[in-house]
TrEMBL record:
SUPFAM superfamilies: PIN domain-like. This is Uncharacterized protein.
Length: 136
């Protein structure tokens, strides 16, 4: 089964009908087959950006609860690597959510991401590899 990381942007777009990426996100996920992986920092960012609507936030949580997303559990031991990444890419800059996804990629070997951010064309993991953004 295919395993792909997902960033906050497409998640936000999925639950915000006014987002310019809404239709693209809906269509993409309708045809996607596999598991979508993310982290709590990404979910927190998405929920915060959906704070204009309790219904949208609730729909996000329901989607996760029904299995729409799998959550990779980061541990305290991963903080050092997250800090290394945010320091290394401070000129971009890399936020906590993005760094958490790069760490998941390093730990899991998942090399595809769904993101609206161009930053993932810059970020490299510990193997000096880029994530492949399949949300085109």
């Amino acid at each position: 089964m295919r395993n792909t990381l997902i960033d906050a942007g497409p998640i936000i777009a999925l639950f915000d009908r006014s987002d310019k990426y809404h239709l693209k996100a809906v269509r993409f996920l309708e045809s996607y087959e596999g598991y979508l992986w993310t982290t709590w920092p990404v979910i927190t960012e998405a929920s915060h950006m959906l704070d204009f609507s309790i219904k949208a936030q609730s729909a996000l949580l329901e989607w996760i609860d029904r299995g729409g997303l799998r959550i990779f559990e980061l541990k305290e031991a991963h903080i050092g690597r997250i800090k290394q990444l945010t320091d290394k890419f401070s000129d971009v800059p890399m936020d906590l959510a993005d760094a958490s996804l790069v760490v998941v990629s390093e730990l899991s070997g998942y090399n595809e991401i769904i993101s609206i951010d161009s930053d993932f064309y810059i970020y490299r993991d510990v193997r000096n590899k880029y994530l492949t953004n399949i949300f085109k």
